[in-house]
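pls ignore typos typing on phone
prephenic acid + seq
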Amino acid sequence: MSTTTPEETAATPEATIAAARERIDAIDDRIIGLIQERTAVSAVVQQTRISSGGRRVSLSREMEVLGHYREALGKPGTSLAMTLLELCRGRI
Ligand SMILES: O=C(O)C(=O)C[C@]1(C(=O)O)C=C[C@@H](O)C=C1
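k done
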């Protein structure tokens, strides 16, 4: 039978922070993987458009992407989407 109270077995602040940071690092790894996947898919679209005589950039589509992120995440979502677009198609 355990003789420790719940207080005694509760995690220390340090342990709680360390465990949460491990989860954050794992989430960040997944986000980075998704960004790399997005970049590869975006390259297919851009190459296909260029090969068929179009331009690398589609500003109307970028407006849709920016709007999608802003609706989901608010104003900072727009900045995030702009950074994502720059990662996927380079600077314009
Ligand atoms: O959807 C497209 O048309 C793409 O080329 C992809 C993408 C994107 O990464 O979201 C990249 C460049 C374009 O300017 C617009 C959007």
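The two ends are 67 Å apart (CA to CA). The domain at 9-89 is CATH 1.20.59.10 (Chorismate Mutase Domain, subunit A). more later
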